[in-house]
Design brief:
Shape: globular
Order of helices and strands: EEHHEHHEEHH
Number of helices: 6
Strand content: 5-15%
Oligomer: single chain
Structural class: alpha+beta
Radius of gyration: 17 Å
Number of strands: 5
Number of domains: 1
Helix content: 25-40%
């Protein structure tokens, strides 16, 4: 489950399904394009587990780095105070320069952490090769949900 923060009053804003690389590789090509790799989010230090001791977090991310996720956000909380609209497929960051550094800095200050420090401490985690078919948005096209009226059938 994905929340907008890790404290009282946190709002559920999405869900991510996480699978192993082996399971990802067995998916049909059409399904693979809905999934993203976790290699960069882990290795860059962007992905954090607030409130978890660093040693435990490191062990968790050592396992997570080879996995794949399918994420749907159900609430664009920075625009509305209610989850209007349809869920949107989200993809993970895959290289430097894609994230707004000011947002990362604000997050780091709020949580009392350093993304740069986390990146350095995760240097010992091996960087896996990304399985073909993941991170499809990098092709310049993305898959999204839409509302479509269809005849009802019993």
């Amino acid at each position: 489950m994905i929340y907008d923060r890790n404290g009282p009053g946190a709002r559920l804003i999405g869900i991510e399904y996480i699978i192993s690389e082996e399971r990802f590789r067995a998916l049909p090509d059409d399904e693979k394009r809905l999934w993203h790799s976790h290699h960069y989010e882990v290795k860059s230090g962007l992905l954090v587990a607030p409130g978890i001791p660093e040693r435990a977090e490191h062990a968790y991310f050592k396992d997570l780095v080879t996995t794949y996720g399918k994420t749907f956000h159900t609430w664009q909380y920075d625009k509305d105070d209610f989850p209007f609209g349809i869920p949107q497929l989200m993809m993970g960051f895959t290289e430097d320069g894609q994230v707004h550094e000011a947002m990362v800095g604000e997050r780091d200050r709020r949580l009392g952490i350093s993304t740069a420090d986390r990146r350095q401490k995760r240097a010992d985690i091996p960087t896996p090769s990304v399985a073909e078919g993941a991170n499809s948005w990098q092709s310049g096209q993305t898959v999204q949900t839409r509302i479509e009226a269809l005849p009802f059938r019993l």
